[in-house]
Design goal:
About 60% of the residues lie in helices and about 5% in strands. It is mostly helical. The chain has two domains: about 1-55; about 70-135, no CATH class. The chain has a two-stranded antiparallel ribbon with strand order 1-2. Strand 1 and strand 2 (about 20) form a beta hairpin. Helix 3 (about 70-80) packs across helix 6. The chain starts with a helix and ends with a helix.
């Protein structure tokens, strides 16, 4: 990055930090600041990867769970084939019973999104199946 700036003959003169990249000391200071920023970025990345690995070892499933369960997917699909309006489906308490424990019913926008997927003949998405497999294998 600093090479690109130098190649384009761009100079930085900060009045408040007393930094001037036209001098040797200014260039050095600019590189040191950049090196520290890169070091911190790499350390954050390492800690994140280590935290995810530790969570997997404890049986936690990383990432956000799907908005609806396979049972809700099937239930919504069946009601859509019967031409039940989405608003009527959302009022039905059975939709909440089929959901994740301690989770609210899916929002209207979510149901409309899945309605479009179901109309296209998409089965329960494969990436969600992977989540469910990890969830079952970790006995959460």
């Amino acid at each position: 990055m600093s090479k690109e700036i130098a190649d384009r003959n761009i100079e930085l003169r900060s009045l408040t930090e007393n930094l001037d990249t036209t001098s040797a000391y200014g260039k050095f200071f600019f590189h040191v600041i950049g090196s520290f920023a890169q070091l911190e970025r790499d350390l954050i990345s390492e800690r994140t990867r280590a935290g995810i690995a530790a969570a997997k070892e404890r049986g936690k499933v990383p990432g956000r769970r799907p908005a609806i369960t396979p049972a809700q997917w099937d239930w919504i699909g069946e009601h859509l084939r019967q031409n039940v309006p989405v608003t009527a489906m959302l009022r039905d308490p059975a939709l909440a019973v089929l959901g994740w424990p301690d989770a609210p019913k899916p929002h209207r926008a979510t149901v409309y999104q899945y309605k479009a997927l179901m109309a296209a003949g998409v089965p329960y998405p494969a990436e969600w199946e992977k989540y469910l497999h990890r969830l079952k294998s970790s006995d959460i």
